[in-house]
TrEMBL record:
The keyword Membrane applies. Gene3D superfamilies: Glycoprotein, Type 4 Pilin (3.30.700.10). This is Type II secretion system protein. Keywords: Membrane, Methylation, Transmembrane, Transmembrane helix. It comes from Pelomonas lactea. Coiled coil: none annotated.
């Protein structure tokens, strides 16, 4: 009677093939995750900037906080920064000098450190 099973060499070959495939796909997977986070960040910034512009056009002034956009229903909720994982890490910028609109928040940027896949700084978006 012949015993059934795999030899050690067959198992090593199969494990080597699996490791090779994982080594090829893992970097592509993580690169696509980074690109997705960058795209989500661009979208969130565009939505918040649009809400800031609409707020300023409607009220004649900029909001004092980002939470005021939610309170006055210009946003349903403050989006989470996909890079920091927090809705509290947004960096707010005041209106430029010479602007006759009052308020504290005229622009918003990400509080994330590092560079985007295109080489630009997240903080400069």
């Amino acid at each position: 009677m012949k015993s059934r099973g795999f030899t050690l060499i067959e198992l090593i070959v199969v494990m080597a093939i699996v490791a090779l495939l994982a080594g090829i796909t893992a970097p592509r997977y993580f690169a696509s995750v980074d690109r997705a986070k960058a795209n989500t960040l661009r979208s969130s910034l565009a939505i918040m900037r649009d809400a800031l512009d609409k707020y300023a056009a409607d009220k004649g002034r900029y909001p004092d906080t980002l939470a005021q956009l939610v309170q006055d229903r210009y946003l349903r909720q403050l989006p989470e920064d996909p890079l920091t994982g927090s809705a509290q890490s947004w960096v707010t910028l005041p209106p430029p000098a010479g602007t006759d609109l009052a308020g504290q928040v005229a622009d918003v940027r990400s509080g994330a450190a590092g560079r985007a896949p295109d080489g630009s700084l997240y903080a400069d978006w």
